[in-house]
Design a protein that fits this description.
The protein is an all-alpha fold. The protein has one domain (2-180). The protein is 87% helix and 0% strand. It has nine helices and no strands. The protein has helices at residues 2-10, 12-22, 25-42, 44-49, 51-70, 74-96, 101-107, 115-145, 148-180. Helix 2 (12-22) packs antiparallel against helix 9 and helix 8 (115-145) runs antiparallel to helix 9. The longest helix has 33 residues, at 148-180. The chain is elongated. The N and C termini lie far apart (42 Å). This is DNA gyrase subunit B. Keywords: Membrane, Transmembrane, Transmembrane helix. It comes from Paraglaciecola aquimarina. The chain crosses the membrane at residues 26-43, 55-76, 82-102, 123-141, 153-173.
């Protein structure tokens, strides 16, 4: 069940696109709300610990409720913008109040973290912040000014490819940095 719900979350733009081809925004919003509540219930113990998970759940629930009651695509299409904005805030907050998100993730597998590692993790966190600004801006543009096909292509394919490229590039750079230190 958790794997299926995670896959459905990643496929959100494609599910929204397909749903909107065959039914109204209210029906799509209702189905997506059901999946969201189910996902939150399955991950309830983790969600209670992570404030950003609660925030994301609440933001998406508000957006989908808007679409449910107005029969508008806007709340459905705004989801990727909200996700980028929430992750931007989370990563930026960790720059102000360390340790950074990247450092916390790195310490899950390697608690022996040098000052150079902390500095590197900070730079990677900044890079992700820049990514979330760019991704959120493009998502906002597709939400406001693009047709549904363009919105789905960017938010359901291209943004994931860009995240993968950034992640792979960071991994390659990290291997070089590790060998130097």
């Amino acid at each position: 069940m958790p794997i299926l719900l995670t896959a459905l979350t990643l496929l959100y733009p494609i599910l929204a696109y397909l749903g909107l081809q065959y039914t109204s925004p209210s029906v799509v919003a209702g189905v997506l709300m059901g999946l969201l509540v189910l996902r939150f219930a399955v991950y309830k113990s983790k969600a209670k610990q992570e404030k950003h998970v609660k925030l994301m759940f609440l933001a998406v629930l508000i957006l989908l409720t808007f679409s449910l009651f107005t029969d508008s695509q806007f709340g459905i299409r705004f989801y990727p913008v909200a996700v980028s904005l929430i992750f931007l805030c989370l990563f930026a907050y960790s720059l102000i109040f360390p340790p950074t998100v990247i450092e916390r993730l790195a310490r899950l597998t390697n608690n022996d973290f040098s000052p150079a590692g902390v500095k590197y993790a900070r730079k990677v966190t900044i890079a992700w912040c820049l990514f979330f600004v760019l991704n959120g801006s493009i998502s906002f543009y597709t939400c406001m000014y693009s047709d549904m096909q363009t919105w789905t292509l960017y938010n359901g394919v291209i943004s994931y490819v860009l995240m993968g490229i950034l992640g792979a590039a960071e991994w390659l750079i990290r291997q070089t940095v590790k060998h130097k230190h």
